[in-house]
Amino acid sequence: MITFPNAKINLGLQILRKRPDNYHDLETVFYPIPVYDALEIVESAETEIFVSGMDIPSETENLCIRVYNQIKKDFNIPPVQIYLHKNIPIGAGLGGGSSDAAFLIKLINDFFKLKLSGNQMTEYARKVGADCAFFIENKPVFATGRGDEFTELQMDLSEYYLVLVKPDIHISTAEGFHGLNFSKSPTGQVNGNNLADCILHPINTWKETISNDFEPFIFSKYPQIRKIKESLYQHNAIYASMSGTGSCVFGIFEKATRIPQIEGLNRVLYCNL
Length: 273
What we know:
Radius of gyration: 19 Å
Order of helices and strands: EEEEEHEHHHEEEHEEHHHHEEE
Strand content: 25-35%
Oligomer: single chain
CATH topology of the largest domain: Ribosomal Protein S5, domain 2
Number of strands: 14
Number of helices: 9
CATH architecture of the largest domain: 2-Layer Sandwich
Shape: globular
CATH class of the largest domain: Alpha Beta
Mean pLDDT: 91
């Protein structure tokens, strides 16, 4: 049985405070995008994972094995071989590893007919990673808490065109959080505006009212990423931002747009939202 985990982008990202459990309270909007990995499981004599497409950090493999082991504790399921073909850029802020883990939960549920509810699958996902739970329902949401408390948004960007730019820079989540300056956004507000309100306004207002708290540190350390965002705006993006902790930067356009100037050293993906 095979499935196709998709990526996400963050439309705005504010970090409010560090929590006693060493996570952070945040506010963001998760939006699913049509960039996919491929994931397959088959019954086997022992549980193994095989990865193709691109090299991945060991923690991504471990996420998938952790998912299997968590479910096996509660259900008498046999060993499986997991085949993962990676296409979603890694270290990009696109949630590829979290998506793989969440889709594996859904795949195991369907393959073994476990009849898990959406809430049960979400609880498994929460144990794996903060944004993993988003990919269970896989719909636009306003996310709070650790990034695993959701309010569904009636948001449709399908009339727009997306350009994703992934430079040859890997940024870990830990690196992004290490550089946070809470004085930049102590209350989760930007320019006096609240993300939950601003995201509901027309997209042509987002440039002035929505931002990503990780950008100041990441842009200062990696000027190349800042230049990518500037280039997207120079080519008439309605809204551009780094996704998550980066390093991927996306631009939303009113029409199909190609930008040869940022191709070459960068991996560039073009798609409809």
